[in-house]
Each structure stands twice: as C-alpha cells, then as structure tokens.
Amino acid sequence: MEQELLLIKENALKDIKGALDAKSLSDVKVKYLGKAGELTAVLRNMRSVAPEDRPKIGSIVNEVRTCIEEALSQKEKAFEREALSAKLQGEKIDITEPSKGQEKGSIHPIMSVLDELIDICVDMGFTVVEGPEVESDYYNFEAMNTPKNHPARDMQDSFYITENILLRTQTSAVQSRELETRKPPFKIIAPGKTYRNDSDSTHSPVFHQLEGLVVDENVSMADLKIMLSEMMRRLYGEGTKVRFRPSYFPFTEPSVEVDVSCPNCHGQGCKTCKGTGFLEILGAGVVNPKVFEIAGIDSKKYKGFAFGIGIERSAMVLNSVPDLRTMYRNDVRFLNQMK
Ligand code: PHE
Predict the structure, then answer these.
(1) Any ligand 1 atom below 6 A from CB of 308
(2) How far apart are CA 257 and CA 45, in angstroms?
(3) Which tens digits make up the pLDDT trace of 39-90?
(4) What is the pTM of this model?
(5) 315 with 86: CB under 8 angstroms?
(6) Looking at the 3D structure of the chain, how many domains does it have?
(7) How many A from CA of 308 to the centre of ligand 1?
(8) Is residue 282 part of a domain?
(9) Same domain, yes or no, for 232 and 281?
(10) Are residue 169 and residue 309 in the same domain, yes or no?
C-alpha cells in the first residue's frame, strides 16, 4: 500500500511537471484527485488495511495528497502568470506614438457676439435678466404702448399660440415685466431669442436680441448716445462711426435707429453694406412716459432710455457670413470655419 502511494505521488508529480497548459493540468488533477481518481481509489480501499496500520497509511495518504495539491497549485499559478504576461504583451501601447488629436467644439458665432455684448454691458454696470419666450400679448405689446390694432404691430408679424399668447417678437417684453416689478433706479439687459413670421437671407423666424433699459431721475437722449456709441465701438472696434437716425417705436419718444460704419469697407460702400457704408444695428429711444404710467412708475420723477440690438446682423458682418440661414443649419464645415 505504501509503495503504491509513493508511486502515485511520483507519477502525479511527473504528470504535473509535464502538463503543457491549464487544460492538461486540470486533467491531471482529475486523474489523481477526482472522484474516480487514483488517490481516491486508494482511500476507498482503506477498509482492507489492518486497523493498527491505518493511522500510518492515513498520514501517508494525507502527505501525498498535500504534496500533489501544492504542486498543482504552483503549476496553476505559473500558467496564470504566463497568461497574464502574454495578455499584457498583446495589449502593449506605444506611448511615444503621436496622438490623433481631439475634436474640439466651439462657441456658435451668434452666441459669441451675444456673450461679447453681455460682457460689455455688465462692464458698464448692467444687470442681466431673462424673460419667457412664450409671452402674453400684454407684456409683448400692450404694456409697451402698442394696443391691439396699433399699426406698429404690422412690423412684427407674430406666431400666436392663442389669441393672447404668442412667441415674443421682441425682448422689449422683458422691459414690461421688469418695469412692473423693479424700483428705479436700475439698469438691466435682457438677452434672448425672439420670433417673427419672416424668412429670407437676412431674416430668420427665430433670432436674437439684446434689450437694454436704464431708468433713473436724470437720464436723457445724451446718455443714450454716449452709452450706445461706446458699446458699438467696443463691439466693432475703435474708430467705428456711429450714426443716429430718427425713427419710430410706440414705446420710445423720441426714437432712433442706430447704424455703425461698415467694418468691411470702413464706410466706403461695399456689398456687405449694400453700398451705403453703414449697417443698421439697433433701435433705441427715450422711454415713452406712457410706458412708465402703464407700469405704475411716476413719469414726472423718472426718465429712461432703452435699446434693442439685433444680434444676427452683427454676427453675420463680424464673421463675413452672407446668408443668415447658414447660421442655423449647423453644418460642421461652416462651424469649423467660425472657430
Ligand atoms: N423692440 C424693438 C424692435 O424689436 C427695438 C427697440 C428696443 C427699440 C428698445 C427701442 C427701444 O424692433
């Protein structure tokens, strides 16, 4: 019996040593230690061993078993290490290889002009506010001194949701809201999207405006002119000429339209400015006292001025984009040029 056990041990160790891979090693394990394995068979025969010899044989069996198990586990570990290092070798990366580069996004030209204007205004002491794009007829028109059937409504063909709810046609709607809730003096700007039923190479049904409103005791057209001239010079560059033309808005009196000298030809006249040398950029004026009265502000004590800047026009001119609609198509080739 003892001889038999030692032979099993010797053969097992030989087989383990000779195993070429994990699979054949596992076969060796089954061959000796499995249910029908050779060592198991010996154990089953213990009954035939004389009782006085059993402890001795038992301890040899244990010794042989431990020895085989240890050899197996060592060989298993060796195979694992080999497999791991083969895997690592296969996945090796060359960190000296030059990178493919990373695609970076960029700020859309419209947003970039809007951000720049916001920065300029914040620098001048304005507070940024926002209002809803789905607006009531009251805030968009009525409170801006533009009652139903007012001819000025013709210039702002609107998208109505119900008879009294529409997509705001102008950020001036935010003026109405702020006038109703704020205590003068204050200086606010309201950037955002506006909507009109217009669509051609210079009009999009959705576009952006930046509204400004200053309310204080002693403000006048002179303040408006100085402030807007400075803003335009900061946006379009030093040396930009700013021109004020009389205009009409129901909510300002007097009203002006403001032009800047064309940054493309510096006033000489070119395709961008249609030969006029100037570009129309914004509407503005001294707040009509009626607007103050509708909002419950004392129009004898307080004066104000307001402006509404169209953003798309500036974004087109500053980036030499001839057709406004390309700005909304999100063609990556176009956006890449704008970086
Ligand atoms: N809301 C006017 C427009 O959209 C612009 C404007 C704003 C004019 C504020 C005067 C004062 O045309």
Answers:
(1) yes
(2) 111
(3) 888 878 878 888 888 888 888 888 888 899 898 899 889 889 988 998 998 8
(4) 0.72
(5) no
(6) 2
(7) 4
(8) yes
(9) yes
(10) yes
